[in-house]
Specification:
The protein is of the alpha/beta class and 336 residues long. The strands form two sheets. It has a six-stranded parallel beta sheet with strand order 2-1-3-4-5-11. A six-stranded mixed beta sheet has the order 7-6-8-9-10-12, sandwiched between helices. Helices cover 43% and strands 16% of the residues. The termini are far apart. It has three domains: 7-52, 434 Repressor (Amino-terminal Domain) (Orthogonal Bundle), CATH 1.10.260.40; 66-162 and 291-316, Response regulator (Rossmann fold, 3-Layer(aba) Sandwich); 163-289, Rossmann fold, CATH 3.40.50.2300. α1 crosses α3, α5 runs parallel beside α13 (291-307) and α9 packs parallel to α10. The longest helix has 17 residues, at 291-307. GO terms for molecular function: DNA-binding transcription factor activity; transcription cis-regulatory region binding. Pfam families: LacI (PF00356), Peripla_BP_3 (PF13377). This is LacI family transcriptional regulator. InterPro entries: HTH_LacI, LacI/GalR-like_sensor, Lambda_DNA-bd_dom_sf, Peripla_BP_I. Keywords: DNA-binding, Transcription, Transcription regulation.
Length: 336
């Protein structure tokens, strides 16, 4: 039996976004597209023998034009570029993006149920990996939904970064500088677990002993507190790999508050780059990830999900993580 073509495959063949294909098929009167692009899309539809899902087309007749974007850390600057790109991608596909506080929705489940069961949004992006509330995930199924930065879950479409590669890159940088005792400051959730896996892989490949993860959390204040406790208790690491730049802000402050120097006594490398990283003193070395690309990809996948539901995982591997070296990382004293 021939596998039915999907809208995303049409978009890929035509070299356009799934949202544009969807709007063309639905004869969106606000869509302005060149004749050559329209012809390319129609040729791809014919070549793949694509037929739109009838139930999805029926749902689109009552669309709100809104996509929900539920984040657990809405004030974290790490997510600014992702939200900005997601907003742009949503607009390109003919939608408005509504930012939601996932933590507040988890505490007020009736609000969340009204949102999804009342179909007040056409689709939902949900930051995964922070809550074990299965009922909330079940409610999310009431509308087309995509989980991002989550492990693959049956029945859901998921989109995430290559966290393992980012943490491995950060750890390998410190190993190349000569560090042998490197600690990992992590947090709760799947993405932190994957980053710890990347750290462990780099350490074991170099025949070094990984440290147990230090639970620093996603915010600067708890990360600072745990860093100060670690150093006061005689922690022996000469370098830290930190789960995110916001957490690294706290680790950075904790090292200095403990009377040590960066990178003289302790080197620091974080996952993700953000606006404040180069302005710390010393500036923060990072394994930068493509957060902007992730935001756009998540919206494109969600728009395709609205048109033709499916499950499975999408991992953003290109562009790969990039090491941006600043002054917070250097060779350990013993290697100088």
């Amino acid at each position: 039996m021939t596998k039915k073509a999907r809208l995303a495959e049409v978009a890929k063949l035509a070299g356009v976004s799934p949202g544009l294909v969807s709007r063309l098929l639905n004869e969106d009167p606000t869509l302005k597209v060149r004749a050559e692009t329209r012809s390319r899309v129609m040729s791809a539809i014919e070549m793949l023998q694509y037929t739109p899902d009838a139930s999805a087309r029926a749902l689109r007749s009552s669309q709100t034009g809104l996509l929900g974007f539920a984040l657990y850390h809405v004030t974290d600057p790490i997510y600014a570029q992702m939200v900005d790109s997601a907003q742009s991608a949503a607009a390109d596909a003919g939608y408005s993006l509504m930012l939601l506080n996932a933590g507040e929705l988890a505490e007020h489940p009736t609000v969340f149920r009204r949102l999804v069961h009342g179909r007040r949004v056409d689709g939902l992006l949900v930051q995964g990996g922070y809550s074990d509330d299965v009922s909330a995930l079940q409610d999310a199924r009431a509308v087309p939904s995509v989980l991002f930065n989550s492990d693959a879950l049956p029945g859901f479409r998921t989109v995430r970064l290559d966290d393992v590669a980012a943490a491995r890159l950060a750890t390998e940088h410190l190993i190349e500088l000569g560090h042998a005792s490197i600690a990992f400051v992590g947090a709760e959730g799947n993405s932190s677990n994957r980053r710890y896996q990347g750290y462990v892989t780099a350490m074991t490949d170099a025949k070094l002993t990984p440290h147990p993860p230090i639970a620093g959390g996603w915010d600067a204040s708890p990360a600072r507190a745990v860093t100060e406790r670690y150093l006061a208790s005689g922690g022996t690491a000469s370098a830290f790999v930190v789960v995110s730049a916001t957490s690294a802000l706290g680790v950075h402050a904790g090292v200095l508050a403990s009377g040590l120097t960066i990178p003289g006594d302790i080197s620091i490398v974080s996952i993700h780059d953000t606006w404040f990283a180069p302005h710390l003193s010393p500036g923060l070395t990072v394994a930068a990830t493509a957060l902007g690309d992730l935001g756009r990809l998540a919206v494109d996948v969600l728009v395709a999900q609205i048109a033709s539901p499916q499950d499975g995982e999408v991992v953003l591997r290109q562009p790969p993580p990039e090491l941006i070296r600043r002054a917070s990382s250097a060779a350990p004293r013993s290697a100088r």
